[in-house]
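Shape matters. Shown next:

___
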Amino acid sequence: MCGIVGLFLKDPALEPKLGAMLTEMLITMTDRGPDSAGIAIYGHPVRGQAKLTVQSPEPGKDFKSLADDLAAVIGAPVTGDIKDTHIVLHLPADRLEEARAAIATLRPSATVMSAGEGIEIYKEVGLPKDVAARFGLEKMSGTHGIGHTRMATESAVTTAGAHPFSTGPDQCLVHNGSLSNHNSVRRVLKRAGMTFRTENDTEVAAAFLTHKMHEGANLGEAMEATLTDLDGFFTFVVGTRDGFGVVRDPIACKPAVMAETDQYVAFGSEYRAMVNLPGIETARVWEPEPATVYFWER
């Protein structure tokens, strides 16, 4: 019984308010997931630049001189913005994979939460309001984002087990439900070269989409494949650099509501997550159909 929220902005005038709007939506879903919370924020990509968001249980130790140490390894300038237990590292896009690999050696206790041109992921254990306050989510701006409040069922309550999960550049996924064949799918994906940090079934779903897109599928095709290759009950909300998508399993027992206006597309596990969005009273509001893929891209 987790809570999911998502917001894709059509109106650039709302971009400075994205963090505030998502934060309110996230907090409203607290009773669906009080164990931990996370959010993925997408900003406008800067040509030639990329970002690594890194989490550490010991930020005072791990983040000290991290940008300089990483710059020395990759031979390119790196800057860092520390936000509580996370740091966002800015670096040349052509050094992204090299930098990501270097983090494991430079700071073994740290974990890369996300990598890409636009994405930043922040997640921690705790009530959604406390997680949001720690990272200053309310003040963040961007083009779109997704969030999750977790009630753990399949794995321990840890930062690593919190959503969103990111397994590819500028990609992430949040999930309400349970996959029954995640162990067998994980084995197949490992043989295909995918790596995993947790035993969480949601990480398998994220990796499944990444693998499909590596094989040449677009977002819609990859999401369609979840309906035949993943077993269980699920609602997935997926983020990419250019947009977001929604898909529910054929039975669709997990709640989901969507709303669309000329200014935005919004998703919530329940309608109450969206009641304070601007213009919601005149929005087109509907329940996503079972086994149907919805996605919006720029």
